[in-house]
Write a structure and sequence with these properties.
The chain is mainly α. The chain has one domain. Helices cover 85% and strands 0% of the residues.
Length: 206
């Protein structure tokens, strides 16, 4: 996970600049409705995410119990269950991010077909796609590395989508592929470092 920590400061700066710039810019353009919609989307998505995570609880709870067992086989079965349940979290984040960015792009185009104000809309999309997850992670125990890591991945992958969109050097299919690849690679890094940490812990206990 330390590999991704180098992005923490740039993301922290982006998290401050993106919403501030988007709000000021869109207010200047008189786009009050989209700002109210964004605010509502953040609140609704927070509760919707909790509901959408219910199916994975059936996997995460037994996984957490098995991980605490001393039996190595049961412990790694627990890790497998946690990995499967955790991946559902990344799927939800990915789908939400894609929806928000596409919706924001559509709204930008509908505002001005000839010269859509894409930048403020994309900055707003980044803010909306990350806000609810950041809020929920802030309510977690400070020792919950999984919540922190998932939030970092959400922000990093959304930032990649934002950058690719604003640069405009790739088609939409390539941007989506890069975004999905970013999420999967980060997920695998987190999974690998978690297993490595547990393996080292078991070795020390022996």
């Amino acid at each position: 996970m330390q590999i991704l920590m180098i992005f923490s400061l740039p993301l922290l700066i982006l998290n401050f600049i993106a919403p501030s710039t988007a709000i000021i810019w869109l207010l200047y353009l008189g786009q009050f409705n989209i700002l109210l919609l964004a605010l509502g989307a953040i609140f609704v998505s927070t509760f919707a995410y909790v509901i959408a995570m219910i199916p994975s609880i059936a996997i995460l709870i037994p996984g957490a119990k098995l991980v605490s067992k001393e039996n190595t086989i049961l412990k790694y079965i627990g890790f497998l269950l946690l990995a499967i349940g955790g991946f559902w979290n990344y799927i939800l984040m990915g789908l939400w991010t894609l929806f928000v960015f596409f919706y924001a792009a559509g709204e930008a185009v509908s505002t001005n077909l000839s010269d859509p104000p894409i930048i403020p809309y994309m900055l707003l999309a980044y803010s909306v796609s990350t806000a609810s997850f950041s809020y929920m992670a802030s309510k977690e125990n400070s020792k919950n590395e999984g919540a922190f890591f998932a939030t970092l991945v959400n922000q990093l992958s959304s930032a990649v989508f934002l950058a690719m969109t604003l640069l405009g050097i790739y088609g939409i299919e390539m941007i989506i592929n890069i975004y999905i690849a970013t999420v999967i690679i980060c997920y695998l890094i987190g999974l690998f470092t978690g297993l490595l940490s547990e393996f080292q812990k078991n070795s020390l206990e022996r």
